[in-house]
């Protein structure tokens, strides 16, 4: 399958969509949130996007503020630097990560909604871990077009994230890296417990925060989105 | 697909095999361990067996001592009654369950190996939760023909079960019922942690011990066994 990549912008925010080159039919869309320090066409995003397109979906990814082709935001840049410094020294990251996610989500929830408006899709799925989870939780809570979400590598470190998770009622597949050195396991479990969804499932795999997720989790995400976004 | 059901016995132990009626080719075999108080053709076993056969496998199930078509074993019967009584009164079941599983596994490990000898299959998968996990852990640890196992709804309540789990190195998909009132979550997690396997994944879903597992877990088991038992 030849995959078409289209760069576009919505409300001035740079984004990219992947679809089959020879298939203009209306497919369910998966919005992929990229990780911290990454961007909309990072290899990890591209790998998932291509897999989703080969599995019957369209995929879209958006540069987060202070990432990719976005201008530098001095405040976010300072916060990101401090997060890296604290991570390297083994300090508790939770409060700073929560503040960072909350600050960025103030922009991204509306930006990602504008991307969906621009593309005019029907049912949408969301896939995001780490930064993609921190920003995904408030987005999925706010956006009714999102009908199912794969989230993970994130925790309920702040009351605000637990409260947003509680407003989510769509099916959730939640990933934990079992040896995550950044997100305490108890905080990950607390976020899983906080989701208001009746249909939620937790997948834990051995590995640290930055380790590659097992490939079978991508297959599982496809099966999950197919169940919830594709008419039987 | 028409499914053929063959009752047979191996070493005097009653068993059943399911295969496609019109396909005599050598398929990978899934041995399904039944739950406590159930038997080899309990609806929950039958549902999984048919799904496995429709997905490219053969399936086999064996009556556990004091279950199904096996004669009554007074000692096991008394233990089972005491487990039910304690469960109803909300007492800690772990020590008694561990003793029960150890006592039954003394017989079933050899019996199930005799079933595999009788059937002369190549790669074998094992699927079992609850009693099927308590008996499955020592079986999978002892039997090199088992190349992958789905286990769950069981805990590392006794040093013997953690030690057997540590000897297991084949891929494991491990299920936890997140609201299990019989197996404390920490004991389930301890069993998952005890497996010696590099490739292991934990799936947790909301629900109590006896609640029906989500159907997507059966689909996941098929994908798991296909990855590990079927040549690419």
UniProtKB/TrEMBL annotation, chains A, B:
It comes from Salinispora tropica (strain ATCC BAA-916 / DSM 44818 / JCM 13857 / NBRC 105044 / CNB-440). This is Alpha/beta hydrolase. It comes from the Bacteria. Belongs to the AB hydrolase superfamily. InterPro entries: AB_hydrolase_fold (IPR029058), FrsA_esterase (IPR050261).
């Amino acid at each position: 399958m030849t995959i078409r990549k289209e760069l576009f912008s919505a409300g001035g925010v740079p984004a990219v969509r992947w679809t089959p080159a020879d298939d203009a039919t209306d497919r369910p869309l998966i919005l992929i949130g990229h990780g911290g320090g990454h961007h909309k066409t990072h290899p990890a995003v591209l790998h998932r996007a291509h897999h989703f397109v080969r599995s019957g979906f369209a995929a879209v990814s958006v540069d987060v503020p202070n990432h990719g082709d976005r201008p530098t935001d001095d405040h976010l840049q300072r916060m990101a630097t401090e997060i890296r410094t604290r991570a390297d020294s083994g300090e508790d990251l939770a409060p700073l990560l929560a503040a960072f996610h909350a600050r960025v989500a103030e922009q991204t929830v509306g930006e990602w909604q504008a991307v969906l408006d621009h593309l005019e899709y029907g049912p949408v799925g969301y896939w995001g871990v780490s930064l993609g989870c921190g920003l995904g939780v408030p987005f999925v809570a706010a956006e009714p077009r999102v009908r199912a979400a794969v989230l993970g590598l994130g925790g309920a470190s702040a009351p605000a994230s637990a409260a947003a998770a509680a407003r989510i009622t769509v099916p959730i597949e939640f990933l934990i890296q079992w040896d995550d050195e950044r997100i305490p396991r108890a905080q990950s479990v607390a976020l899983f417990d906080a989701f208001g969804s009746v249909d939620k499932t937790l997948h834990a795999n051995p590995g640290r925060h930055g380790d590659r997720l097992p490939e079978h989790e991508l297959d599982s995400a496809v099966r999950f989105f197919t169940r919830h976004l594709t008419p039987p």
